[in-house]
Specification:
alpha+beta; eight-stranded mixed beta sheet; 9 helices
C-alpha cells in the first residue's frame, strides 16, 4: 500500500476519529498514544457540541458533526448514542451584544441551521422558567445542540480503529524522529520505530513538544489550565428539570449543563498563564484557589453565587462535590490549525481547538481525509452538497479575525 501509510500521534477524540476515517478510505494506519486512549483533554472536557458559531463554514461543519454523532450510535457496540441533544441556550443581558446575537442567528439560519431560535424576554421566561426574571434580555437557543458522552466516543472510536485493521499502541510516546530533507521518515517510541508516508499530529495541547522532536513549525497554540466543577442538586429544581436542561451560558460566561439528573456541571474561563512544559500528572493538580475544598472565597463558590442570580434555584443546591482539571489548547483567533506543516511536507497538523476539539472531531476527520488524499492543503471540503472554505483553519492565516462565540 505504497504512499498510503499514515502514522497518527495522539489517541484522543480527534486522533481516533481521523484514524477511523483514513481506514475506511483504505489507508494503512498506526496510532501512537503517549499514555492511554483519552488520557488528555478528551477525558476532561465539558463535551459541549453546538452549531451556533459566528462563521458560516463552522456552522456547516458542526452540523456535519452533529449528524455524524447521531449516526455513530450504529457503530457503538451496545448502540448507545454518544450525543445528548438537550440544546444550547446563550443568555444575553447587554443590549449591544443581544442585537449582535440576533444578527448572528440570522446568519446561522442562512447557513442551514434553521432550527436556531431567537427568544425575546417573555418567550425565554415561558420556555425556561428557571431562568431568573431579571437575568437576561433574551437568548438564542438551538434544540439540536447539546453535549457528548466523550468516553464513549474515544473508547468506541479506538475499538473501531482496531476492528477496521488499524494498529493502536498505548504508552508509546514519540521520543525521536528520522528526518530526510523536508520529510518525516519515521518516529521512534519505547514500543518500536514506525515508518510512514504521512504523519498526523493530533496532540493538541502537547503539540509544542512534538513539534520540537519533529523539527516542525512552531504554532501559536497555548495550553491553559481549566477547571470544571460538579454541584449536587437539592431544593426546588426537580430531577426532570435538571436532566433536560440545555447547556446554558450566562451573560457573564459561566456555562452549566446536567451531568446526570442529580448533578450540574459548571465551568468558566479564568485568567491564566500558558503552561508549555506541563506534565500529564499536572492535569490532576487542582490549585486551591479553584478547588471545591478551597473555602468559600475560592473561585467556584464565587461562580456558584453568580450563577444563582441567573438560575435562582441553584442557590439551594447541596454543594460543590468535585473539581476536575485539564488543559485547553487555545489559538489567538480561537480556531484550530488544520493543514500541512510549513517545515515538514508530509506532516499534517490538527491542533489548537480552543475547547472545540470534541465537537469538531468528525468535521476535523473529514478535513483530514481531504488533506491526506490531496497530499497538500485544500481550499474547501464538501458538506451536504456545499463547499465549506477552510481559510479560517489554514496555517499561516490572518489571526486577527477571531471566532466570536467562545466560552
Amino acid at each position: 500500500m505504497a504512499d498510503r501509510r499514515a502514522v497518527i500521534m495522539g489517541a484522543g477524540i480527534t486522533g481516533v476519529l481521523v484514524a477511523r476515517e483514513l481506514l475506511l478510505a483504505g489507508w494503512e494506519v498506526t496510532v501512537l498514544e503517549a499514555k492511554h486512549v483519552g488520557a488528555g483533554s478528551s477525558s476532561r472536557t465539558a463535551a459541549g457540541i453546538r452549531q451556533q458559531f459566528s462563521t458560516p463554514g463552522t456552522v456547516r461543519g458542526m452540523r456535519y458533526s452533529v449528524g455524524f454523532y447521531q449516526r455513530f450510535a450504529e457503530e457503538v457496540e451496545d448502540g448507545t448514542c454518544p450525543i445528548v441533544q438537550n440544546g444550547y441556550l446563550f443568555l444575553h443581558a447587554d443590549q449591544r451584544r443581544w442585537e449582535q446575537a440576533k444578527q448572528t442567528a440570522a446568519m446561522q439560519r442562512d447557513a442551514g441551521l434553521t432550527e436556531v431560535e431567537v427568544l425575546e424576554h417573555a418567550d425565554l421566561r415561558a420556555r425556561f422558567p428557571w431562568v431568573g426574571p431579571e437575568a437576561a434580555l433574551g437568548a438564542t437557543h438551538c434544540p439540536t445542540d447539546g453535549f457528548l458522552l466523550p468516553h464513549l466516543v474515544y473508547n468506541e472510536g479506538a475499538r473501531r480503529v482496531r476492528e477496521l485493521g488499524g494498529a493502536l499502541l498505548q504508552t508509546a510516546p514519540v521520543t525521536e524522529a528520522t528526518l530526510q530533507a523536508d520529510r518525516v521518515v519515521a518516529v521512534k517510541t519505547p514500543k518500536g520505530t514506525f515508518e510512514g508516508d504521512l504523519f498526523v499530529d493530533c496532540t493538541n495541547a502537547w503539540t509544542h513538544r512534538l513539534a520540537a522532536i519533529l523539527d516542525a513549525q512552531p504554532l501559536e497554540v497555548c495550553p491553559y489550565k481549566r477547571y470544571i466543577w460538579f454541584l449536587q442538586r437539592d431544593g426546588p429544581m426537580t430531577a426532570q428539570q435538571l436532566s433536560t436542561m440545555p447547556l446554558t451560558i450566562t451573560p457573564q460566561g459561566t456555562y452549566v449543563r446536567p451531568e446526570n439528573e442529580d448533578t450540574l456541571m459548571m465551568g468558566r474561563k479564568h485568567v491564566a498563564e500558558p503552561e508549555l512544559g506541563f506534565a500529564y500528572e499536572d492535569q490532576d493538580h487542582i490549585d486551591t484557589r479553584f478547588s471545591h475544598s478551597g473555602g468559600v472565597d475560592a473561585w467556584p463558590f464565587e461562580l456558584w453565587m453568580e450563577l444563582s442570580e441567573v438560575v435562582p434555584s441553584v442557590a439551594e443546591f447541596a454543594g460543590i462535590q468535585a473539581t476536575t482539571g485539564g488543559y485547553y489548547a487555545e489559538t489567538p483567533d480561537h480556531n484550530p490549525f488544520l493543514g500541512y506543516d510549513r517545515q515538514r511536507a508530509n506532516l499534517v497538523r490538527l491542533v489548537g481547538f480552543s475547547g472545540h476539539g470534541a465537537m469538531m472531531g468528525p468535521f476535523t476527520a473529514k478535513i483530514a481525509l481531504s488533506l491526506c488524499e490531496a497530499g497538500a492543503d485544500v481550499d474547501s471540503v464538501e458538506v451536504d452538497g456545499a463547499a465549506v472554505s477552510l481559510d479560517a483553519f489554514r496555517i499561516g492565516r490572518d489571526l486577527s479575525k477571531r471566532e466570536r462565540m467562545v466560552i
